[in-house]
Write a structure and sequence with these properties.
With 559 residues, this protein is of the alpha/beta class. Helix content is 23%, strand content 29%. Helix 1 (2-13) packs across helix 2 and helix 3 crosses helix 4. The longest helix has 19 residues, at 295-313.
Length: 559
């Protein structure tokens, strides 16, 4: 009764379409034996309708709390909803090994669904983050009965996000490991740890060697964390069976993708979108002003997702669940003053590539660089440049922040434009080309683009990091290294009177594991070497940020 009342109130608050039924029966803890004998547990939400398609959700995060509300809302919209706990979580047997069993367990679950008396022969999948990875694990082999997918803040491969720029996403990985382990402790103990500000996790993020950090954070050794530290090199065999991007061309189900500009998986999700478009698919893409796990993304996922599932799962007998947008639509939110939602035919939209060069005196200009000496800073991994906002796993710490505290540090260089006389709308992939010299051969380059307002506040828009070593980034005969830094894609309008600012620093800890400067193995490094580095910005070494600028009649090209 309470679940039904909560669902009714939530449907009104979320402005969902009227329910097709309020009568939903729930069967909990259904046991399903998979091929290796492990028992997986699932709940079934059954609408009181003569025929209804199925929505499958597979999750390592339990079946209670918000998931219970989501399942009931979907069932009231006209779907049989089956939510299953991944092995080793939520009462399911076996051991949770990220990405290892999801394809086989998913196929066995699909076989079970086909044997149920309420099965109609059509199903869809829904889920965010890891719940999306399990969709991609199954999608290529599910056959024509898979009619739709809703992939929220996720991607077909986690490898590139884990080692963004060939660094290590320490905050995301260790926080996730701690979150999964916290599901096994009593509720009161967990609340006490959260109230204390998670001191064990905070200590672990600063601990060396990293191979001990999981035990510091959780009290136990986390096998996948150890493996991810060990198998971090490009093209490591470990990841071959744990990524699914090489099978995207076999996925025939229509896919809706929902993400946020500050989501940890956004670059990988947009690569999935491009791969599907390259083989003629027409996925739906929505990117909003959200972070991973933020309430706004949850609301958008429900609205967009239920609409997408209704359009592609419901036939003429049952009717559409909701009015869904056209399959070809891309919808993005443009941040900044004068921004808002934009409907696009594809991603990325046509744009002029404009280079904003670093100039002497900390100035950023679209004009060509001029002869000038480099700017330099000292980076000390014992006092690493801290990360602030941006794409993080925890929504409350992610997104735009005033970057002035970071920019005041001596290990952060900035270049700032003059106030804009006309607005500039930047929509698409962003990258920086940085030329540097360093007395160390092992180092990181972190680059961030900010929007500076009239009060001098510097709001981060997008960023990226690259880890350098002498094999991948050899220096030229002047000891200069050219580094292309792929930054997060964005959609942002820099309004008249605002200024563009580019930051360059030696890291962003603990979002990325600090670079010790020694070349020691990722998990074992304990020796920290500080060093000086110079950022070049002259005609021979034209360091710049490269922006995709979308022009309109009221928005002339920058001068």
């Amino acid at each position: 009764m309470l679940d039904a009342l909560a669902a009714g109130l939530a449907a009104v608050a979320l402005r969902l379409p009227p329910p097709r039924t309020r009568r939903v029966s729930v069967t909990r803890d259904i046991a399903l034996r998979v091929r290796d004998g492990v028992l997986l547990r699932a709940d079934h939400y059954a609408p009181n309708l003569p025929a209804a398609p199925t929505v499958l959700i597979r999750t390592p995060y339990g079946r209670a709390g918000p998931m219970r509300l989501l399942c009931r809302l979907a069932a009231e919209q006209g779907f049989h909803v089956v939510i299953q706990s991944c092995r080793g979580t939520g009462g399911s047997g076996g051991e949770f090994e990220p990405l290892v069993h999801e394809r086989d367990d998913g196929m066995d679950t699909l076989d079970w669904l086909r044997r149920q008396r309420w099965w109609t022969g059509a199903f869809g999948m829904f889920g965010a983050s890891y719940q999306g990875f399990v969709q991609w694990a199954l999608a290529a082999d599910a056959g024509p009965q898979l009619r739709a997918m809703v992939a929220v803040a996720t991607a077909s491969t986690t490898r590139d996000s884990t080692y963004a720029g060939e660094s290590f996403a320490l905050d995301t990985v260790l926080t996730w490991a701690e979150l999964l382990q916290a599901q096994t402790v009593p509720w009161l103990a967990r609340q006490w740890e959260l109230k204390r500000g998670q001191p064990r996790l905070t200590a672990a993020l600063s601990h060396l060697p990293l191979v001990e950090a999981d035990r510091v954070a959780t009290g136990v050794t986390v096998p996948f964390f150890q493996q991810w530290l060990r198998h971090h090199t490009p093209h490591a065999d470990y990841w071959r069976s744990r990524v699914f991007d090489d099978r995207l061309h076999l996925v025939t189900a229509p896919v809706a993708m929902i993400s946020g500009w500050h989501d940890i998986f956004l670059p990988a999700q947009l690569r999935d979108y491009a791969a599907l478009r390259a083989v003629g698919a027409r996925p739906r893409l929505v990117v909003g002003p959200w972070t991973h796990g933020s309430p706004g993304m949850f609301v958008a996922a429900l609205r967009e997702g239920l609409g997408w599932l209704g359009t592609h799962l419901c036939d003429e007998r049952s009717g559409d669940v909701t009015d869904a947008p056209a399959d070809t639509a891309v919808r993005v939110h443009v941040g900044g003053a004068g921004g808002g939602w934009r409907d696009l035919p594809d991603w990325p939209p046509p744009a002029e590539v404009v280079r904003w060069h670093l100039h002497p005196g900390g100035v950023l200009r679209a004009a060509e660089p001029v002869p000038s000496p480099p700017d330099g800073f000292w980076y000390d991994p014992a006092d690493p440049t801290p990360s602030l906002g941006g794409p993080l796993l925890v929504a409350q710490r992610a997104g735009p922040f005033d970057n002035r505290p970071i920019e005041a540090r001596p290990d952060v260089l900035t270049w700032t434009s003059e106030p804009l006389t006309a607005g500039i709308e930047v929509v698409g992939p962003v990258r920086a080309q940085i030329y540097l010299r360093s007395d160390l051969r092992y180092l990181d380059v972190f680059v961030r683009l900010c929007d500076v307002d009239a009060r001098g506040r510097s709001w981060n828009i997008c960023d990226g990091l690259v880890r350098l070593d002498p094999q991948r980034f050899p220096a030229d005969d002047t000891d200069t290294v050219a580094v292309s830094v792929e930054m997060w894609p964005t959609a942002h309008r820099f309004a008249p009177g605002r200024r563009l600012r580019l930051q360059v620093s030696g890291g962003a800890h603990p979002r990325y594991a600090r670079n010790p400067g020694t070349g020691e193995p990722l998990g074992e490094a304990v020796t920290l070497r500080s060093g000086f580095r110079e950022i070049m910005h002259d005609p021979k070494c034209p360091s710049a940020v490269v922006l995709p600028v979308v022009h309109s009649a009221s928005q002339p090209p920058p001068s």
